[in-house]
Amino acid sequence: MIKEENTEYKERINNMFEDDLEDDDIEYDRTCQNCTFYHQDGDEWEYGVCMNNTEIFETYLDEIFESDSFSCCRELYLQNRIEGLREACELFEEIEVVEIPEGEDIVEYLWYENKKNQNVDEIIEYLYNTDINIVKRAINAISPYVYIGNQGAFEILLKYYLSLGPAESLEEVYLRKDIIDMLSRYESDRRVIEAYVYELERSPSNNTTRQLYTLLLERLYECDSNIVFDLLFDLLNKKKFSQKIKKRIIEVMESDYSLRQENQFYYDLSKTE
Predict the structure, then answer these.
(1) Cα 14 to Cα 181: distance, rounded to the nearest angstrom
(2) d(CA 82, CA 48)
(3) Contact status, residue 48 vs residue 38, Cβ threshold 8 Å
(4) What does the pLDDT read at residue 172?
(5) What is the pLDDT, as a whole number, of residue 256?
(6) Other CB atoms closer than 10 Å to residue 210's CB: what's the count?
(7) Residue 233: enclosing H or E segment and its boundaries?
(8) Which SS3 state, helix, strand or coil, does residue 53 take?
(9) Element (H, E) at 38
(10) Which of 216, 146, 262, 49 lies closest to 58 in space, CA to CA?
């Protein structure tokens, strides 16, 4: 969660938004502080920096947004700071008025929205690195964005997960369990359910992958039963499993009794037990 902000800063933010939200047709002066690229310093209210070129502060962005100050890169900030009331340049884009839900902490809400919409494409190359330790760090880096609902981060993670081969080591199993935990927040998306079933198809069932299979079947049990039944139905036609695993798969399929009644294949499978 965001670090605790000082009371004075929150009051200033609150006052600013209370005034702004009274009129949806506000016309802002073309000054830096009214530009969408301007990030104000919480410690020096009259100063800030232009974030149109985020490369300057790239390595400090998370700390800057969380603390709403430039204390983590003071020297760099002093070299690039500008006065908020300065006349804006030709790249000026008027700020968008954000309606804060009633009862929400403004600072925390804005931090949350920033994380939810932040571009995380720079993480992609590290996910496909041949060094597993770099991959793990990339997974850790993208996880907060996936958990918070960043759609771009979710798409990147799902694509990476689908690109993997069969799990053959415990290290690969643990990595996939972490990914599945993140994807579990998006199970209303059919592609996530398909990814779970695809994992059952591509990875062998053995002592190494036992934890992975258990987690997958637990997650599938919580997903849309209609989609799960059809996908597992096809899976059992394509891949042979041990009697024990097949029984567990059938137990997931039978979570919706009405679907079992409609499909004779379920009874055929049950008779083989």
Answers:
(1) 36
(2) 6
(3) yes
(4) 96
(5) 62
(6) 12
(7) helix 225-238
(8) coil
(9) strand 38-40
(10) 49
Neighbours of 85 (CB within 10 A): 11
Give the pLDDT confidence score for residue 20 in this predicted structure. 46
Predicted confidence (pLDDT) per residue in 113-140, tens digit: 778 888 899 999 999 999 999 999 999 9
Burial grade of 188 (CB within 10 A; 0-12, 13-18, 19 or more): exposed
**What number of CA atoms fall less than 13 Å from residue 215's CA on the CB side?**
18
Cross-strand pairs, 47: 83
- Using CB atoms within 10 Å of the CB of residue 130, give its burial: 0 to 12 exposed, 13 to 18 middle, 19+ buried: exposed
Q: Give the predicted TM-score (pTM) of the model.
A: 0.61
- Burial of residue 149, with CB atoms counted within 10 A of its CB: 0-12 exposed, 13-18 middle, 19 or more buried: middle
- Count Cβ atoms below 10 Å from residue 237 Cβ, excluding itself: 9
Residue 12, token pair as written in the block: 């200033």
Task: Measure the N-to-C terminal CA separation of the chain; round to a whole number of Å.
Answer: 50
Q: Nearest-5° angle of CA 7, CA 8, CA 9?
A: 90
Residues 6+ apart with CB under 8 A from 245: 205, 213
Residues of the chain with pLDDT under 70: 1-28, 54, 96-98, 100, 104, 256-273
Virtual torsion, Cα 237, 239, 244, 247, nearest 10 deg: -20
